[in-house]
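User: I'm putting together notes for a lab meeting next week and I want to include a structural view of one of the chains we've been expressing. I don't have a solved structure, so I'd like a prediction I can at least talk through. The sequence is below, exactly as it appears in our construct file.
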Amino acid sequence: MLSWITNLEPRVLIANCVGIFGVLACIMIFQQTERKKLLFWKLIADCFWTVQYLILGAFSGAGVTLIAVARSIIFLRIDPKKGKGVGWLIGFLSVSVIVAALTWKNWWNLCSLTASVLGITSYWIGKPRVSRVLSFPISTAMLIYDLTTMAYMGVINEAMSMVSSIIGIFRHDIPARRAKKAAEKEVHS
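Assistant: Thanks for the context. Below is the predicted structure for the 189-residue chain, given as structure tokens.
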């Protein structure tokens, strides 16, 4: 049943073993209600994904994921609500485009770039609800990229991220919206 695992090249097997830790960290991301906790788990996950992509020779994915590591570190330290960090947002978006151009291998690299741009924007906005919603196009783009680079744990992660995001929406966003509507209704009564 699992004989396909033994047929994988050693580097692919090792890379996907590293990816297991990325998956475990990603499970935690969309269950967070605080920006800093969400960014912390994203930072941990992206460290594992960077290593996985490097082992696979998927340099576009490694590059944009390394940018995500830096982004998480910076965004953990700044408060976008006070207007700080707009330069960081523009800088990270620009660096993502440059890294994608420098590591260009094929058209699939646009998937990692798309995910990077949406991820940078999502985490800069700093609202877990927005991150949960934007996780769908981000995960779709990365799922495609992961399939093309044999990052099988990444494929599993993206599918799980979508499920985790849906759970987070039902656990946090829908009840919050209902509570807000109930409070508004009570005020107007």
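A couple of points you could mention at the meeting. Residues 11-182 form one domain. The chain has one domain: 11-182.

User: Perfect, that's what I needed.
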